[in-house]
Write a structure and sequence with these properties.
Blueprint: H1 8-12, H2 25-46, E1 53-56, E2 59-62, H3 64-68, H4 72-93, H5 102-132, H6 139-146, H7 166-186, H8 189-213, H9 228-247, H10 255-275, H11 278-281, H12 286-306, H13 310-316, H14 319-326, H15 328-344, H16 347-350, H17 356-361, H18 364-379
Antiparallel strand pairs: 1-2
């Protein structure tokens, strides 16, 4: 059972996907962390990638890797999706409820994902058309974007929004989730994990080989390492965390999982800071396991947070993270566009606030404003009519 809270829970409950599942305040906070971490990466780039070092006595703590590798927040999104979306399917596997109606599940996914994406797509399309005087793309490419299959489009070119690359990864997971859930019917969770790892390692080897002998213009090339066939294990780890969560006794101690996840994640980010992103350097054998390590670390953290202990709520269910979690999808979509607009029009330079600190902090307010507007007037109307929350209030569990 999940302990329900009021206040911030009322606001962010509209962020859930209308499946009727219990609400997890701490997981909403983790969504805020995921989106915020990706935003910090792009703010750091907008600030011309400064070193972020804080003095601590004779030591200078280097936090630069936390900003330089903020793309890890996307891995957290994938694990959270695996956890939350699999809950009703795994409950059906255990015989606790009927098998979810797939048409309803996929319709809800469309209502949750497509409105904000479509509105942004058409706004960017119109803006590009006005700026250049010609349509930015033909009908076939428009249909590829609308069908969420643009990553397979030949000679696609740069994405209008660089973070869109992850949307088809999630979209394709929605399609195969029922099949993945069926694996739990006859197989133990450990064998499901082994099968997922065997698949992704083989596929990653295939993609690395394409780097040397493949065609960069082909639909499947080295960069397909970033897409679902190479990331299934992250979603599966989220599903396994959901499996253990549902079977855990009420009030079970979960802080060891949280500690293990945080330590593993800290080691992972530190290694990235020392050696760099293995995807960019084509570094083996890290390419075979680095997504898996990130997925495992986040699965441990998600499992611990889902227990909604007092510690988890203090860490993840506060007012600020509840707000960020509520607007996380719009925040993810719109922050690169706001930063690109500020950069192209030299807004901060024109007002004489071009220092790294200004470039890192001043864009936060317009990003949050645009993201909230998108959430309030584009996302929320497509969620359940019953979910019309007010602004968050502090949760009783966190004072």
């Amino acid at each position: 059972m999940v302990r329900r809270t009021s206040g911030s829970a009322g606001y962010t409950r509209a962020m859930t996907d209308a499946r009727g599942a219990d609400y997890y305040p701490s997981l909403t906070g983790l969504r805020g962390i995921a989106a915020g971490w990706v935003m910090l990466l792009h703010l750091w780039h907008y600030a011309i990638a400064p070193d972020v070092r804080l003095p601590l006595g004779a030591w200078r703590l280097d936090f630069t890797p936390l900003f330089a590798h903020g793309w890890v927040g996307v891995d957290l999104f994938f694990v959270l999706s695996g956890f939350l979306l699999s809950l009703p399917f795994l409950a059906a596997v255990r015989g606790e409820r009927p098998w979810p109606r797939l048409a309803h599940f996929w319709a809800q996914r469309c209502r949750r994902v497509l409105p904000a994406y479509y509105v942004q797509f058409f706004l960017l399309f119109i803006a590009a058309w006005i700026a250049t005087g010609v349509a930015p793309m033909g009908l076939s490419k428009v249909l590829a974007y609308l069908g969420m299959e643009f990553l397979l489009y030949p000679n696609l070119g740069p994405l209008p929004n660089p973070v869109w690359w992850s949307l088809p990864v999630e979209w394709h997971f929605y399609l195969i989730l029922p099949l993945l859930a069926l694996l739990f019917v006859r197989l133990r969770w450990g064998l499901v994990a082994v099968l997922a790892l065997a698949w992704v390692v083989a596929f990653r080897l295939f993609c690395v080989n394409l780097f040397y002998v493949g065609d960069p213009e082909a639909p499947v090339w080295y960069t397909t390492l970033m897409h679902l066939p190479s990331r299934i294990d992250e979603f599966v780890f989220g599903m396994i965390a959901a499996w253990f969560h549902a079977r855990a006794p009420r009030g079970a101690t979960r802080w060891p999982a949280l500690a293990a996840g945080v330590v593993l994640l800290a080691w992972f980010v530190h290694r990235l800071g020392v050696l760099g992103d293995p995807l960019l350097t084509v570094r083996m054998p890290d390419l075979l396991w680095h997504y898996s390590v990130a997925g495992l670390a986040f699965a441990l953290i998600v499992y611990a947070a889902a227990g909604e202990s007092a510690l988890a709520q203090r860490l993840f269910a506060g007012r600020a993270l509840a707000f960020l979690g509520a607007i996380s999808y719009s925040l993810y979509l719109w922050h690169p566009i706001v930063l690109k607009t500020l950069a192209e029009h030299h807004v901060l330079e024109r007002v004489g606030l071009d220092g790294a600190a200004w470039r890192f902090t001043l864009p936060v307010a317009p990003i949050l404003l645009v993201s909230w507007f998108s959430y309030r007037f584009v996302e929320r109307p497509f969620l359940r009519p019953a979910s019309r929350p007010r602004l968050p209030q502090p949760s009783p569990a966190v004072g």
